[in-house]
Specification:
Helix 3 packs across helix 4, helix 3 packs parallel to helix 6 and helix 4 crosses helix 6. This protein has a single domain, classed as P-loop containing nucleotide triphosphate hydrolases (Rossmann fold). Helices cover 36% and strands 25% of the residues. The chain starts with a strand and ends in a 7-residue tail after the last strand. The protein contains 8 helices and 10 strands.
Length: 215
């Protein structure tokens, strides 16, 4: 049974059509990859799924309910975890502090948030010393791991990631994809946007967006 589905989604920027009649289904326990040429609307689709942008028409259904009927703050802070292409971490904070802040924003009821943050960071491959470093003291691959841990901080059903391996070397890419595989095996629904054929091959299902030709 799908936890998230798109039904005839259309979206335009002014007079420019970006998405037209898109219908996709997403289930728990699988990794999905959204592929397509530049300008096909991949990042726009992710923005729609995360509730940051509203579709012109069609429905996005989460757990049987149209997300337009769900409080957007609650939706983004409890059900959907978003990993941005540029990470969007607070650079003056440590890795652990970034994760704790996410817990605070979501209203997560956790007794020892700092310890839980360190546990989450360890689960994605960062040790306690790295967890206590400021973001600018971490490599790109390490920052990506922090972004994943932050997205997991309130235990959402769905993980959305925009080009999660775009700035990483091949070895680190495989390590990040192994984390996503583990999350899917644990029952998460993982949805990625990627230009990488290697990443697409590591996913269970690929949905391709076609760029709408101008007439």
């Amino acid at each position: 049974m799908s936890i998230l589905s798109l039904k005839d989604i259309c979206f335009s920027y002014g007079k420019v059509k970006v998405l037209q009649n898109i219908s996709f289904e997403f289930e728990k326990g699988k990794i999905y990859c959204i592929v397509g040429k530049s300008g096909a609307g991949k990042t726009t689709l992710l923005s729609l799924l995360s509730g940051l942008t509203n579709a012109d028409s069609g429905e996005i259904i989460y757990n049987g309910k149209d997300i337009s009927k769900i409080d957007k703050y609650k939706y983004r802070s409890k059900y959907i975890g978003v990993i941005f292409q540029s990470y969007n971490l607070i650079t003056k904070f440590t890795a652990a502090e970034n994760v704790v802040l996410s817990m605070d924003v979501s209203g997560a009821k956790i007794k020892n948030k700092k310890q839980r943050a360190i546990e989450l960071l360890e689960s994605v491959g960062l040790d306690e010393d790295e967890a206590n470093r400021r973001i600018l003291k971490l490599s790109g691959g390490q920052q990506q791991r922090v972004a994943i841990a932050r997205a997991l901080s309130y235990n959402p059903d769905i993980i959305l990631a925009d080009e999660p391996t775009g700035n990483l070397d091949g070895e680190t890419q495989n390590e990040i994809m192994a984390i996503f595989r583990r999350l899917a095996d644990e029952g998460k629904c993982v949805i990625l946007v990627s230009h990488s054929p290697e990443v697409a091959k590591l996913c269970d299902i690929c949905y391709e967006l076609q760029k709408i030709s101008k007439k």
